[in-house]
Structure formats: structure tokens, C-alpha cells
Specification:
The complex is a heterodimer of chains A (about 280) and B (about 270). By secondary structure, chain A is an all-alpha fold. Helices cover about 75% and strands about 5% of the residues of chain A. Chain A has 13 helices and two strands, in the order αββαααααααααααα. Chain A is globular and about 75 Å long. Chain B is an all-alpha fold and about 270 residues long. Chain B has one domain: MetI-like fold (Orthogonal Bundle), CATH 1.10.3720.10. Helix content of chain B is about 80%, strand content about 0%. The chains are: A mainly alpha (about 280), B mainly alpha (about 270). Chains A and B meet through helix 1, helix 3, helix 4, helix 5 and helix 6 of A and helix 1, helix 3, helix 4, helix 5 and helix 6 of B. Chain B: Its main location: membrane.
Chain lengths: ~280, ~270
Amino acid sequence: MRNSRFLLPPVLLWLSLFLVIPMLIVVGISFLSRDTLGRVVFEFNLEGYRTFFDPLYLGIYWDTLVLSLLTTVICLLVSYPLAYYIANASPRVQTWGLVLITIPFWINFLIRTYAWVLLLRTQGVVNSALLWLGWIDEPIQMLYTYGAVLMGMVYNFIPFMVLPIYVALEQMDKRLLDAASDLGASRWKAFLHVTLPQSKSGIMTGAVLVYVSTSGMFVVTDILGGAKSTMISNIIQTQFLGARNWPFGAALSVIFVVTSLILILLFNRAMQARHQRVGEGRA
Amino acid sequence: MKKRSHPLLGIHSYLMLAFIYMPILIIIIYSFNSARLSGNWEGFTLDWYTSLFQNRHVREALMNSLTIAITSTVVSTMLGTAAALALRDLRGKKRSGMNGLLYLPVIIPDIIMGLSLLVMFSQLNMPLGKTTVMIAHITFSLSYVYVVVTARLSGMGKQLEEAAQDLGATPWQTFRHVTLPQIAPGIISGALIAFTLSLDDFMVSFFVAGPSSTTLPIYIYAQVKRGISPEINALCTLLILVSITLILLSQYILNRGNNDKKHKTLPI
């Protein structure tokens, strides 16, 4: 009422000016052309989108999807048990577990990625350890490989998966498990039919968070990956900072954001549909 | 209560924690290793820290980072708090629309935010420098301040403010003596988060920083691309410690604020 009259306009203005309008400009530029110097020219053109369908870029796009999905699945597999353990632990362990999972959030991901350079390089910690143990005779090339990129991605995004799943599991009504066991369900069955469905919202949130963050993370491929591991975000970055083909970069950004949104929606719908089916099955 | 966790789960969880913290510990340990290039431990040294402080580029980057972080913290804290207060008075569609807009900077991938600001600044012929980085940092930080202050506001009723108004306080007096003291922990905690985010940001700054506005993370990136150096380990160690300290402090203030609230509301 009285407050919002003068408190709202500054924020509204700020976000319109530095968030909404810039994004609209990017959408606009994706439909424009550029001159020989790389400047944007006000002339309608679909060249940016056409370039995307070049087999080279389609291939990179596919690789990005695969890498992001792989990261999401691995994160889910290793994070679920951890989240489950914390959610079922004593209050003291829960508090500490949460603090320990949240701290990496606040450590620069650039630094966390760089740590893997120290670990994986030829003279790095892992190679030195393996040599010392006598398991290998000469250092293995681990840095600048696909595996290194995948490792860096999973490592960076584990907290994104653990926290939402923990929240879902923590909010779950634990009496349901007692009911299941009273009705003769084994622990495994109770987990499969009670716990897992109840934590679906957490899994979904975590998966979306990890997926969307991975596909935008050009730094990990930049630092840990070789020449072959290029993601669509690396291409976007080059178009804006190096190659100066803004219409193409803008078109890629639009495609990137739109596909992320579509995937999120599809995932959402799939989860809802499954939820309904399970509900009907029970009834 | 029945014990529900399988022992394997416990082992897995501790291994995961080790996995999460081992790389961070490795950086910290290596920052004290006197070996320049090899991965072996060749003795304890503080040389990398001294050479770090003597490095002119590092000092410059540190000054840039601090200037940007302090400015963006002040502005984003004011904007975020104003937004939280304003939205409390809104209802219905207007409120959910504004709420969505305020969450947008959190949801949008950093790379998109960075490049779209770059595009706009260059269309406006604005030279890239500290100002452009500050604008970018304010934009994403204000969302986090908004979230923290809103959480704090929703935890307090309007009774105290209404009582103050009934007793003849002006809106400003009510805000200054009733609302502000109650949401202060939220504001301070939000400001600390904003400061940390600004100090740590790489992605957005990478797009909107000019040659004269290299921040610490951008400096680190440039060095890491060139190869590893022990000074970078030392710099990373310092940045890790600063981030963790600030965040723990912010959480501490928020928690202490919660206890205070219980004590304060009762006597009145």
C-alpha cells in the first residue's frame, strides 16, 4: 500500500534496465545480421539460427546434452544415499552434515575446478600416488580428457543435488515407513514404494538445477577439457568475446535457454503423469 | 526410534564428504609446499604468500574486487531490502509477478546474464570497467538479499508495527524503531551474502569487465589458463577462507537474530 508506492519503482526500474531489456536485446540481435567488422546491423536475418544447423554445431549441441545428462544422473546416484543418510541421522549429525554440504557452495567454482588440475595433471597428486604405490609405471594422461570434465562437473554440482533431496526426505512423514513395516513390507520394498516416491520433488528439483547449471558451465570444459570437449556454452562465449559473431551467439543463447525450459517442462509433466499413475494404481 | 540407515550408507556418506573436501584441502596444502612445479612435498614454506602480496597485479585485482564488492553490497542491500518491504504490501498477481521477476537473476544461467549485459553496454557505448561490473553484481546480488530479508519479514507479524502506528508513530518512526531492528539480522546476513557473491563471481564479471577492472577471480582464471603456479594456490586458499568465514558469519547473525526475536516479542 503506502510502502510499495516509493519502494517498488527503484527495483522495478533496475531489473527492467539491467535484466529484462538486455535479454530482450539478445533475442532481438539473434534475428539481425552483422557487417564485415562484426558490428550488428539492423537487418532481419536468420543466419544465426541457420548456422546452428551446421553438423559441426549440432554435434557440439548433442555432446552438451549428453554431458549434462550424464552429470545429472551420476550426481543423482551418488547424492541420493548421502542425502538419505543425513535426513535419517541424529539432529546433531544433520546440522553438521548440512553445514558441510553447503560450504562448498560458497567456495568459488573456479577454485574448485582448479583443484582438479592439481589432482589430475601428469605430476599431480593422483599420478604421484599411483606411481608410489607401484600400480602404474608411468603417469596416465587424465587431465584434458572427457573423464576429467565429467569429474569436474559432478564434483561442482553434488551439493545442488544433495540439498533438495535432503529437504524432501526430511519433510517426509516418517510414520509412513512404520506403517509399511507393520504391513509386512521389507525395508527395500518400503524404500521403493514409500520413500522414493515421497522424495520425487527433491530429485526433480536437484536434477533440473544440476542439468541447467552444467550446460552453462563453460569454465569446466575450458580448464579440465582438451580441444575435443567443447560445449555449446564455450561456443557462445567465443562468439561474444572472441569471434564477434553476435547474431550467431545470440541465436545459440536463445536456443540454449529455450531447450532448457522445454526440458524442465517435460520433466515436470513426466513426474506429474507418473505421480497420477501411481495414485490410480493404489486406488 | 528404529535405526533406519544401513552401515554402507554411512560409509558412502563419509567417503562423499572426503571426496568433496579433498580437492579443497589439496589446494590449501600445496599453498605451503616449497616445490614450485613437482607434485611432491618438498617442505613447508610461506614464500608463496609473501610473493603474492608483493605482486602488483594481485594487489590491483584485490583493490578492484574490494571496491566492486563494497559498492555492489551497499546498493544491492538497499534495493533488495526495499523490494522485500514493498512486496509485503502487494497481493495477488502483482505480488507473484514481482516475486518472479526478483527470482529471475537466481534462475538465469550466469553466462546468459553476463553476455546480455555485455551486449547492452556495448550498444549504449558504455566502456567496460568497474562500473559495468558493479551494475552486474548489484543485479544478481539484490535477489539474494531480497530472499533473505523476505524470509525474515515473513517470520514477524504486523502487530508491532500496527501498535506503533496506533500509538501515533509516523511511518518513518515505525520503520526506524520497529521494523528495522527486527529485520536487521536479515539485512546484515543478506549483505554478507551479497559481498561474498560479488567477491567470488567469475562468470558474469568475465563478460562485463574491461582490461582495467580485473577482479581476483578473473586474475585466477587467467593464471590457471597459463598453467599452475604456487602463488595461485596461496591466493585460492585465502579466498576460500574469506568466503567460508563470511558465510558462517552471515548464518551466525541470522540464527542469533532468531533467538533475539523470541526474547524480544514476549515482554512486549
